Amino acid sequence: MTAPSLYLAPTLDAALDALAERGTEGTPLAGGTWIMRAPIRHERLRPAYVGLGRIAELTRIAPDGDKLSIGAGATHAQLAGALAGRAGLRALADAAGRSANPAIRRAATLGGNLCTADFAAADLVPALLCLDAEVEIRSRDGSERLPLERFLALRPSLGPGRLLTRVLLPPAGGASAHVRLPLRKAGDYPTAIVSLWAARDEAGHVTQARIAVGAVEAVARRWTRLEAALAGRPLDAGDAHRLATELADDFTGRDSIEAPGWYRVGVLPALIRRAVAALH
């Protein structure tokens, strides 16, 4: 078997050119934490990789108008540090700062977490869903922005030569939380993940809520029925647990060697309780 080739792109334009030229044989390489374990999963490596590690703009975290722009090359550790202390973005800061282990967090990137379609337990995906994120996709022909939910549906079919370059977050306001249930210890993939963002009026009633669930099904998604059930109510952990129990049949848990599907669904009400309690 021929060893894969690696081209270290000096600029974003050079990376886009290289990906377009390599077509279906090429793929981006950033932190590499998923790709390096491909042989363990009995997956073949791609013939050609385009390294993105030298492209400074892909690691930039900065305001862009009224939004926050986060480069796809930002690592989990960089995200956790940059967002620390922001109540509305706490879900993303915690997702980045508590996933996997310190060594992985220093290497794994935002873009890799979002683009790895076969990784159901990615922490950043539900956190970004609850924060109403958009993604920017670029190619040699231009760029486009998509809601994250739309990108997740399209990512298995995105053609070659396209690269996720950044994530954009609207003004957060409110408060958010991210809770996860690993099987045994830090570093394990989570059995289930809940990310919650909520805004409340002066009386403490929910004016808007966004809840995303990860690891339970193959792709993270919003829990829209629970969001609607919480609207207009006081944000109470016990009440949220009860409503989540009533609505848990919205999910069909995935079976895996780590945990059966019924267990993943069964722990969701407890995670909702923890997420609401964390907001207080």
From TrEMBL:
Residues 1-174 form the FAD-binding PCMH-type domain. The keyword Hydrolase does not apply. Pfam families: CO_deh_flav_C (PF03450), FAD_binding_5 (PF00941). SUPFAM superfamilies: CO dehydrogenase flavoprotein C-terminal domain-like, FAD-binding/transporter-associated domain-like. Keywords: FAD, Flavoprotein, Oxidoreductase. This is FAD binding domain-containing protein. It comes from Ancylobacter oerskovii.
